Amino acid sequence: MNRWYFPFVVGIIIFMFLFLLGDYEMGLILTLSGGFTLGFFLMYWFNRGSNKGEGRR
Questions:
Q1: Which string of DSSP letters, residue by residue, matches 1-57?
Q2: According to the model, what pLDDT value does residue 34 have?
Q3: In whole angstroms, what is the distance from residue 4 CA to residue 27 CA?
Q4: How far apart are CA 57 and CA 41, in angstroms?
Q5: pLDDT of 1
């Protein structure tokens, strides 16, 4: 089973941690979370486009 969603869940946890800390501006947190989401979506898209055997380690 390809767990492509695992880094996305970690990103959500980091986002909640930073949000609860409150030391960072909301714009910075939204920018970081948006970048993480876009990066993980691209990783999922590339994994989906490759063969099933590839991408697993």
A1: ---TTHHHHHHHHHHHHHHHH--S-HHHHHHHHHHHHHHHHHHHHHHHHS-SSTT--
A2: 82
A3: 26
A4: 19
A5: 45
> Does residue 1 lie in a domain region?
no
Q: Residue for token digits 């993980």?
A: 40
Which residue shows structure tokens 């969603």? 5
Query: Taking the model in full, what pTM does it have?
Result: 0.40
Q: Is residue 56 part of a domain?
A: no
CA distance 55 to 30: 29
Q: How many domains does the chain have?
A: 1
Mean pLDDT of the chain: 72
b/e 30-45 (16+ beta carbons within 10 angstroms → b): eeebeebeeebeeeee
Question: Looking at the domain assignment, is residue 33 inside a domain?
Answer: yes
